[in-house]
Amino acid sequence: MSKALEEISRTLLKGPYTEKYPKEPSPRPEGFRGKPEFDSSKCTGCAACSSVCPADAIQVAHANQKRIVTLSYAKCLFCGKCQDACPEDAIKLTEEFELATISKDKAVVAIEIQLRPCKLCGKPVAPEPQLKILEKQLVDVGIPAAKIELSLLVCQECRGKIEAKGAARRIIP
Amino acid sequence: MQPETAIILLLRFLAIILFSILFGFFLSWVERKLTARMQGRIGPPYYQPLADFLKLILAKEDLTPSSSSVSLFTIAPIASLVTVALAMLFIPLNSVAPTLSFTGDVVLVFFLLTASTFMTMLGGSASSSPFGAVGASRLMTQTFAFELPLFISLTSVAIQSGSLSLFRIVDYQLANGALFWTLLPATVAAVLCIPGKLSLAPFNIPNAQTEIVEGSLTEYSGAKLGLFYLANAIEWFVVTSLIADLFFFISVGNWFAGVLLHLTICLVLAIVVTTIKASTARLRIDQALRFYWVGVNILALLGLALPFVWRSIG
Amino acid sequence: MMKKVSAWALKKSPWIYRLNSGACNACDIEVIAALTPRFDPERFGCLLKASPRHADVLVITGPVTMQISDRFKRVYDQVPDPKVVVAVGSCCLTQGVYEGSYSIVGPVDKVIPTDVMVPGCPPRPQAILDGLLRSFSILQEKRSRS
Hints:
The structure holds 3 protein chains of 3 kinds.
Chain A: H1 2-14, E1 36-38, H2 48-52, E2 58-63, E3 66-72, H3 81-85, E4 91-93, E5 108-117, E6 124-127, H4 128-141, H5 145-153, H6 156-171
Antiparallel strand pairs in A: 1-4, 2-3, 3-5, 5-6
Chain B: H1 3-38, H2 48-59, H3 70-88, H4 105-125, H5 130-161, H6 166-176, H7 179-182, H8 184-198, H9 209-212, H10 222-247, H11 255-278, H12 285-313
Helix pairs in contact in B: 1-10, 1-11, 2-10, 3-4, 3-10, 4-5, 5-8, 5-12, 8-10, 8-11, 8-12, 10-11
Chain C: H1 2-12, E1 15-20, H2 26-33, E2 47-48, E3 57-61, E4 64-65, H3 69-78, E5 84-88, H4 90-94, E6 104-106, E7 116-118, H5 125-145
Parallel strand pairs in C: 1-2, 1-3, 3-5, 5-7
Antiparallel strand pairs in C: 4-6
Helix pairs in contact in C: 1-5
């Protein structure tokens, strides 16, 4: 009991060590994993984050020429796998942790990516940012512009039809 | 009795009960704040016990388990509160005379304090809950434990001062000095019985939350729990006040300074008991029994022998 | 006036009861950490009580497993009105990683009405404290409204 009394007198002299949260902000440690946020300038809509998420918190949906990527942080484990998997660094776990809410349907972050419509049939080809990056990479490598146009402006079906027509013309002169 | 004196008596009753509620809340707050500061945290604000009590009485639903004995379940908190408040009427506050007084009222005060604990026990057994039953049995065993040395020290005070009336005991101390010096072992024994009476660590066996949920109070909620809470707060004041009157009476000039001194002594006793609470762990019930019946009893018996020693000397 | 006083008293003295409904214990550890001297909820009047009949705020962790679902409902009924339920952790809100498991009834708000939800796996003690403070205001509102 005497040890306890010593400890008590030391504590009484030093004063309380309570963190004065919420009156003062609480410091986060290095590498803290808080609420994830999308960066709309970088996201290409590749859905790599959705495929690696262990809790299926990231869902990809399509609606009127747009790809909508929704992250429900009520389901999120804050593990950071999406951050590691993203090739464009478009999803980052910020330091925000005060996420208490009264409605978990509102606890989502979403991002919309424009889908490029096919020049021939109008069906979506791929997300616009993805195709822009690909264009730039192909031009750098030296692929001719006509070939780029063929691969990036038409959808899979139409391209298949075009290639088949071209192949048929070569076989049947 | 004249109607005027009846009205004055009633007003004095109400005044002393109101004062004991307020000071009881204050002592309860001191316990919580001091424990918090000793544990390195901030602790509740000064109005906390009042807020707790008002919440329980006004804002919470009062549920009664259907398989409990409803009449006993309802009477227990009321009886517990009434007995402990009644005990306050016999206790003088330094030179302020008690509202009621007669020879043998010390025994009545002790009986009322025990009756209050007994009502809590009854409430626990009437709860039809195993936690209530175990809490009641633990409370009974602990009462057995500390009552013996407490009664023995009371007997030594009665023998030394030659009376069983609190008023006369206080008068004796006014004439011959505080009984704290002459009956030191009895004082120490009585102060050691306070944690047992108030169910504070290391004797918080009856409300050992990790073992038996809340003990006797498990099934209580709302207003009835509020009444038990109030009874506990008044009990703090009654017990510390009683020990202050029995052993630590010091007379000062006017009555107001006397009352302040008395309240200060109650506060000091509360601080001592809180320090013991913050620095010890809970004992088992058999260890508590052994502590009181062997250790504290020896002190109390020494105190019992002392009046005869003083008489044979001087 | 009485209503104002009782609403004030309810906000200043909220008592907590913690219940684990099938969790992995990480959220429980963080809830208990939020009750330590470092974060001291007692400065808001908040005490941890052992009996649900004494509590105002029910703090739940974990998805509701089949084994606990009736007992869980019984404990919820034992808490006297007005009461608030705080669901802590992503398992409570949406079953988290355990979705589709054979032994789980569903997220907490399938079994009892939930008021405040604190996402995280597990949430930081400060985040739990933030959720608790929000629930105290909701408690006061409930009393003022009733």
